Structures are given as structure tokens and as C-alpha cells.
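Please check this:
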Amino acid sequence: MRKLPAKLASQLYGAAELIAERGLDGTKIDDIAEATGIPKATIYYHLDGKNGVLEFLLSDLLDLISSEVGVAVSTAEDARTRLEAAVAAQLGVMVEHPFLCRALVGDLGRATRLPELAVALHTAFYEPIQQLLAEGVADGSLRQVADPSAVAMSVFGAITVAGLSAAVDAPSADPAADAARFSAAVCELVLDGLATSRSRDDHELGERS
């Protein structure tokens, strides 16, 4: 995707609420032009119609996540602490941009088929989390996992569903409080799990027998 002029990029955010409410199939390029104040010819010149608008919005969301997660994982804390910070960072971005998240929900199938978004997602989240998993083993704050790639994807999924739930239910008057609540829940699940130590011991014993 070509880099858009700053003014045009800022105007395109006006399409997020529209797409969130109607879905991309229910949104016409005329509607986007009216909501954003961008002439149709300009939209078609810079983007592949309304599909390009959705791709831009979701790419921009991933850029925001990448920036915040990058800051969270670059501190001098142990890997577990930085993982907790990364979870909070992504959720913070998502609850602050509910219409972008709702647009993603409405067209999730279409979004997952966009190659550029897949690459951006890998760079924004999967790679930093996989690196944290390796560093956690080295500093003793996280245990070794059999498949770091799958674990990173699962962590992203847990965060994303929590963030999307907050965005879809209703925009909150206190996004920071929502981000903190969901972050605590995701970290409890990811880092502490649901099983008691006794049930984990029994499960491991059963696997060995």
C-alpha cells in the first residue's frame, strides 16, 4: 500500500464508524466520500476503493499496536513483566479506537485474507512475543513452551477477543479502566492458567503413565 498524504490519512478515520455500523458490504464508496469529505476520484486514485479504505484503517491500527507493544517490550524488566506490559499496550490501543475494532469484527474474514495485514501482524505482535518467550526462559520468568509461534498467536487471539468485546459492546467512558480490567484477566489466564497445581500434577502423571 502506498503511503498516503497525512491530511488524507486523517480524513479516512471518518470512515471507521461508518464501516463499523454498516459493514463494508453495506457501505458504498459514495457514503465514504460523504463521511470523510474526500472526493471519490481521490479515494480511487490512492486506494483500491472501499477495500483499500478498510485495509488502510486496519493497517493503521496494527501500526499503532506495533508502536505501543514495541515500547512495552523494550524496557529492562524481566520478560514476564514485559509480556504483561505488551498485553496492556495492545488492549489500550484497541479500547481507545473502538470503531476501528468494530470495523475489524464486521469484516474479519475479509481482513484475514489481506497479505499485507498478515505481514504487518507478524511484525507488530508475533515476533516481539516470540522473542519475549525466549528471553523469559533465559531469565527464569517464563517456562519453556513447545511451540512459541502457536503460543504467540494464542496470546494475540486472547487479547484481540477481549479488546473486540469491549469495543463491540459499547464505547466506554473510561477506556483506561477497561484496558486495565481486560489486561488483568488475559494475564491471569495466560500466565497463571486455570488449573490448580494438584490438577496439573494429576494431568502430568496421567500423561506419563
Summary: The chain has a mean pLDDT of 84.
